[in-house]
Amino acid sequence: MFKAIVIDKESGSYEARIAELDDARLPEGDVLVDVGYSTLNYKDGLAITGKGPVVRSFPMVPGIDFAGTVEHSANPAYAVGDAVVLNGWGVGEQHWGGLAQKARVKGDWLIPLPPGFTPRQTMAVGTAGYTAMLCILALERHGITPAHGDVLVTGASGGVGSFAIALLTRRGYRVVASTGRPQEAEYLKQLGAVEVIDRASLSEPGRPLQKERWAAAIDSVGGHTLANVCASLRADGAVAACGLAQGMDLPATVAPFILRGVSLLGINSVTRPFAQRQQAWHALGETLDLKQLDTITHEIGLAEAIPAAGELLAGHVRGRLVVDVNR
């Protein structure tokens, strides 16, 4: 038996609760993992509260990432006792996820515990930090370097934003942070931001082409914010887009793309090939100051994740929430 958050929808009633389940109820997969830590991401918040169409089948165990130890394996890549990490692959949406004490998944979705990290540290980084690094690597493949100028980070107080600031700063970039929480300015500067701006300057409809301000950007917001970021990038700049906190729409024009050569780089963190996942975690190991994890993260227990989901969606959570599923 194991404990898990279970989301169910019966007779039109949507409910997330803590349940005790038998191992036999776990979905198919060739690796069974004793989960140590998971996290609470924006997508998990939508799933637990029912405020977004995230869950594809019921009942569902949320949690889009986890770290743990292999209990049983029919996959030649993993043996009993191996420490493993999972990010994405539809867990917590289509396949039972990590907000539970056990998970059965496809071994192809896992990677070995990255060198230099403990299981808890990988979840302190989690999908948010992993996604932030994918964004940075995409910008650098595009040719962006610190010499090109300022990099804007939107949604700066959230998980992806917090890690983007810390990682960009460690790689030598000058970072400008956009947030709707001015009380977090000192926190963002502590992570490395040299300037903090009010998100209101980006979140409303703006002109199709605006003053050139940033060499590049990492955007986890979408909507009008992403449109204004594109309109404000310097010539040949790029924005790595990885989120939709403001919405899925993009009320923009082609002007920045054809008049300034701006590039919009879409970041899919869910189904990256094994080599790209390892590359991102290797870059995280090289770049991240692990001491900053205490600044960025806060640990909660499994039962606390349910009320915390609403707080996360309301924008009341700073940085990352690590979930110890065994307390």
From TrEMBL:
Give the residues annotated as coiled coil: none
Q: Which SUPFAM superfamilies match?
A: GroES-like, NAD(P)-binding Rossmann-fold domains
Q: Which InterPro entries match?
A: Acrylyl-CoA_reductase_AcuI (IPR014188), ADH-like_C (IPR013149), ADH-like_N (IPR013154), ER (IPR020843), GroES-like_sf (IPR011032), NAD(P)-bd_dom_sf (IPR036291), Zn-ADH-like_protein (IPR051397)
Which Gene3D superfamilies does its entry note?
A: Medium-chain alcohol dehydrogenases, catalytic domain, NAD(P)-binding Rossmann-like Domain
Any one GO molecular-function label of the UniProt entry: acryloyl-CoA reductase (NADPH) activity
At the top level, the lineage of the source is Bacteria
**Which keywords does this chain's UniProt record carry?**
Oxidoreductase
Q: What is this protein called?
A: Acrylyl-CoA reductase AcuI
Q: Which organism is the protein's source?
A: Paraburkholderia hiiakae
